[in-house]
Amino acid sequence: MMGTAERQRTHEIQGTGGTQRTRVTGSTTDEHDASGSRSGEERRELWVEEPARRRRLPDPVRTAAVRAVIIVALTLIQAMTAFLCAMAGSWLSFPMVLSSVASTVAATWGVLDVWVTRQVWNQRHGVVSVPSSTARQLRRERRRARRQARTAERSEERIRRRGRTGQLSHS
Which intervals carry biased composition (Basic and acidic residues) (predicted)? Predict the structure, then answer.
């Protein structure tokens, strides 16, 4: 068992870019060498960052997903409220059931919106190997525009280097 002094000795705080990480040293034995260090000392971090297993969703898809989750959650709350009002025999049960039906339609639209947004994003920015992908055409157009901008810049540079020798008028 470690005492407070040993615990303080084994904690090390590093500040990197405004964030702090705590490291703890562990050992296999509690015996100290003559130099004061522990024998068989092994360091391991408390916080180990692991790379994400999946890529992050694109912004438009993530926005649609958040919107869909909120709509579905509100629809479930509304449906439960309508059910409880119906069980209690309240006058609010009929309007709540009607609004629950409308909310169900909206929730279905929200979920379909996520699916459609994801498909559109994949087609425009995603996999290029698909023959129907518009990403290939967009990349071709961008390359062509960059090439034209470079050639225009080179020709302007040539004109500037040449000076005013190719001038047609003296105005």
Answer: 1-12, 29-47, 150-159
